[in-house]
Amino acid sequence: MPKDTEPGFRPVLPPLTAVRAFEAAARHQSFTKAAAELGMTQAAVSYQVKVLEDRLGKPLFRRLPKKVELSETGRRLAPAVASAFQGLHAAFAELRETDDAVLAVTAVHTFATNWLVPRLGAFQQQHPEIAVRIDLSSRNVDFTREDFDLGIRGGRGKWPGLQAHALIPIAFTPLCSPDFLARHGPWAAPIDMLKAPRLDAHDEWWRLWCQAAGVPHTPPAGPSNVSLDVQSLLGTAAIAGQGVAMLMPAFFAGDLAAGRLVQPFPLMATDDTAYWLVYPEGRKNVRKIRAFRDWILAELKQ
């Protein structure tokens, strides 16, 4: 069996740098012009072509005074090499075009559902050429291993290798439905409200809000069988009158304005964190990332 037909055989290709130098020199019929295109010296182009000639055992150019011409071997090889490079350019251009057309965003659930998604139409109007794909996740993804362009996450804005822009400070307060308030209130002081059924009563936010309200010890929760981890679900349960929920009013402005939720006390508490827009520092000038960053920061200013 001939060696080049044996299973697993891979022909040894010449160095890509040498092939690239030959393609440019053949196209320009000049080592000097090829060097200018490739950012190399004329001597470097000549050397790379010589490497290829030594590999083939045949000259690819005739060196004439002040110019070069393709040899017979060079004329036979040049079209195939040019076609191969055109195919590579087309493949990378298509990949770049596809990559530029889709923006992959990983976002925490409530920020995405209650704030981002209702406003995405404005971004699409400004950038109809960019399709946005949103993945809901509470974990901090690894941008070096996962196929995401941007992330929206909670924290203090310090993640190695990531550029971070503060979006919304995490500030929370108890919210409930008007019907729930009518059944269990009114409450003259926070300590009175704490006797009513609370949703996710063991959430750390309850302790922080009670501390800010001057309640030294958070009393045991009233009866409630509802325990949820996501603010959007807690908000839905609160609107349904199932209890008082510790929520961020910034995510429920529409429900508050429509009277589906009420805020019994004006006091807001915080855990000194915020929601942040993050992306790898090395990709800050990518067009689609820059477009989304500029849009969301401008939207928040409004």
Automatic annotation (TrEMBL):
Superkingdom of this protein's organism: Bacteria
Protein name: Transcriptional regulator GcvA
Gene3D superfamilies named in the record: Periplasmic binding protein-like II, Winged helix-like DNA-binding domain superfamily/Winged helix DNA-binding domain
Classification via Pfam families: HTH_1, LysR_substrate
SUPFAM superfamilies: Periplasmic binding protein-like II, Winged helix' DNA-binding domain
Keyword Transcription regulation listed: yes
Domain HTH lysR-type: 14-71
InterPro entries hit by this protein: LysR-type_TF_proteobact-type, LysR_HTH_N, LysR_subst-bd, WH-like_DNA-bd_sf, WH_DNA-bd_sf
Keywords: DNA-binding, Transcription, Transcription regulation
Stated family: Belongs to the LysR transcriptional regulatory family.
